[in-house]
Amino acid sequence: MNRVVIAKYADMKQVAAKITASLQDIDNKYSELRPYLEQIDQIEDSVNKLEQAAYKLDAYSKRLENQYKILSRK
User: What pTM did the predictor assign?
Assistant: First the structure.
């Protein structure tokens, strides 16, 4: 019985070691990707600000167009 338990724990130790190695590998890959992910976040923020500016500009141009139409009728 003890040998079976010892073998089982040895297998569990190997599995835990493999999981630890995999997690370290994933952590290293994430660390390498982190600067790119931060750049993506910055680009996304810039795009959102640009989109908001475009909507404001569109609304402003529509108001100007309406004012022009009103003034040109007179």
Answer: 0.65
